[in-house]
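Chain A, query sequence.
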Amino acid sequence: MATVSFLGLGVMGYPMAGFLSKAGHDVTVYNRTASKATAWVKEFGEKMAETPIKAAEGADFVVACVGNDDDLRSVVLGETGAFAGMSKGSVFIDHTTASATVARELAQTGLQSGVGFVDAPVSGGQAGAESGQLAIMCGGKQADYDNALPIMDAYAKACERFGDVGSGQITKMCNQICIAGLVQGMSEAINFAEKAGLDAKQMASLVSKGAGGSWQLTNRADTMVDRKFDYGFAVDWMRKDLGIALDEAKSMSVSLPVTAVVDQFYADVQRMGGGRWDTSSLIQRMRQFDSEKS
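Chain A, predicted structure.
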């Protein structure tokens, strides 16, 4: 069993840190809002720290799951950041969905102190975090990944390394690109079925058993028909992720035409007041668009 520090106790990080405790690791948590850390400690009987550096002192592994590039830098760098408390040979595991640029930047900084770095964004949403069934996409040195794998296994359904640091974030961008296109296609199909007088749930159930099937169709079609959009991954977060992918694509001179369009559709949903709706709420834009035309 390892000594682990976990930074960030949001809807994903809270249960992930819990699985580490249940697996028998010695866990210390840090969260910017201390009340969440207090609640976690009360539930799992472990320890909390007031700063990232205090959490990281003596840890074999420091794990982070925060909001974005700036949040990540704020808990890693500086006099009170985690790197200042980490010892040579320890490994930083970053589950934040962030840019490949910040992953490479932090890995290089850690290297100067002998700290390993694995960028390891996750897919599976809040439900996956709470059930310990996340898909984890990793980048980093093989040795660092091998060391980190037993830690990530506490909450992973699948975990793979795709290359050097940054590769995990690029893979997560691919994941979000796929989801954006799928959800837009589903929105069009369900809206089309409703307008044609079909039972949209029956349509989705049958289609999901054929070549048009997907996790999104199986798990989100019924809630889209029922206009329920409170299933975890918010439009605001998706726009952050798609922005990262579009910026990376621009730097690579790679075209993402469908992703760019769907990103703007999500901007429309935000203007409708749906920033905190889940990503399947794209269908509401379709419904409003057709309503305005009629």
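The radius of gyration is 20 Å. The chain has two domains: 3-164, 170-293.
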